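ENCODED BACKBONE
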Amino acid sequence: MDYITAIILALVQGFTEFLPVSSQAHLVLAGEWFGEVYQGLDFDVILHAGSLVAVVYYFRKEIFTMLRDWAGSLAGKGTTKDSKLGWWVIIGTLPAGILGIVFKDLAENEFRSLWIMGGSLIVFGLLLGLADFKGRGNRDEYSLSLKDVLIIGFAQALALVPGTSRSGITMTAALFLGMSREAAARFSFLLSVPIIAAASLLYTIEVLRNGTTAGWGELAVGFVVSALSTYACIHYFLAFIKRVGMQPFVLYRVILGLLILSVVW
């Protein structure tokens, strides 16, 4: 892998991880274009680590308050809206975490089909469009109930299928539950933190066992570019959906899905 390839793949990761367009699908397509260069597990880990640092830094104030109040609730200092949100993030992570472990091999092998990817982009894209048009309301992340969180959590588990988009499917579920666009996106981003952290840790252990395939320079460049592009993506995405909505992403998903299916037809 050269530095140009590393930068391009890091930009793909950074600009698609939190958009409802499936970063996994884009990385697979980029991997096909570059001869499956991205398949190096160490480089995949470092790209996601960059995205993790970006989302934690962007929501650092919210995360700090949530963790402080959550720890306070464990110490018997009472429940606040932020401590409750902390519990919701933990509970909402469990379905995807458990099912991700159970179906890890299936998701990484049998599901990695361009047919599945193209179909998922279209089907779940149209579902996002319907949720944004019909289901959207004014609820924020603090109004969620346990039932709401479990629905969003199990929806997140569907992202094991390439082309679904973890952020896309969680925002879809949140919109159907009457959340606003911004609140749906914020909760989706917060929900991503433990999932990305756990996956990065799991794969880091695997990399340490098997050794690295990419050079340290390429890994460093990938991390920095992924972090910066992810941060920019989050910032502009939140502003964009407030003014425009989700429909442009729906159109993009459908077009991309049709292109993929036309190639493998």
In short: The CA atoms of residues 45 and 200 lie 6 Å apart. The two ends are 31 Å apart (CA to CA). The chain has a mean pLDDT of 88.
